[in-house]
Amino acid sequence: MPQKRIERQALIVGIVVNALQVAAGMAVFFMTGLKAMFLDFSFTAISVLSGIVAVYLSSRTVRTTERFPNGLFALEPIYAICKAIFTLSLLLYSLLDVSQVAYDYFVLGTGERIETGPVVIYEILTVLVCFGLYVYYRRENRAIRNSSTMLTAECKSTLVDGAMSFGIGVVAVVLMFLPTSGPFDFLHFTGDFFITVALVACTIKEPFGVLRDAFIELVGGVHDDDETNAFVEATAQRHLPANTEYEQTLIFKTGMNYTVDVYLSGTGETIDVADLVECKRSLEKELTRRLHIVDVDFVFD
Q1: What is the model's pTM?
Q2: In angstroms, rounded to a whole number, what is the distance separating the alpha carbons of residues 184 and 188?
Q3: Does an H or E element contain 77, and which?
Q4: Among residues 36, 63, 82, 232, which is most buried (max CB within 10 A)?
Q5: What are the boundaries of each domain within the chain?
Q6: What is the mean pLDDT of the chain?
Q7: Percent of the chain whose predicted confidence (pLDDT) is above 70
Q8: Helix or strand (DSSP H, E) at 182
């Protein structure tokens, strides 16, 4: 399907770009020992691994089998949930790690002076790359009407990655010009603690948002996008079977697959089954132009 091809192409581009960032980030981390750099390149490493999984899922979820006649689209929100959990775990680990460094300095009086080295140059390049990748993900997802749960997850994680890189770069610049003696000398030992805490506080809502949206998809929650709902309702009312009256429409989204339940009531003594099937197919055909993968059910309650 062209929609899945667009999704896979975007994911592959992200894998290549993020892999280069991981290699550069690891080199800078080992040169400087900056704790926040560990958080930065580890987060990007998760994007590489999850991107590989996402490419595989993108080619599998749309396939149907005898056991799964409707495909495996539920794997897409499961992927988003797993990535969000890994992201939250990494944020928590990094927070605990830098907290130990701050404790050693402020309580025990021990610590090592932070070396910024090439951090500033690396972070400037990383911010630019993350911004470009974020715009690219959004553009490709919009081309398929924001139907890709996996591209949405990658887009938000790239935004978090870019925010981390920006914050670390700011700290590196401050430390470069901060005198080695004075009231703020402690920042030369604990600067990565303060920036890591700030980054976690500012970015932790993103994985929680992905987790919430993916969970709603997985358990069958109603899709709440007003624009999509209005489009589906207007289209459904143009494809009503004879002797029926429109009541409401419920839309369910699982990954890139949409299920549309159109609730009807009978207004005549009989309903032509052939007309019912024809209206279902014509409605699916029109909805597919925008929602790509759609299954319509007429429900008489």
Answers
A1: 0.80
A2: 8
A3: helix 75-103
A4: 36
A5: 2-219, 226-300
A6: 87
A7: 99
A8: none
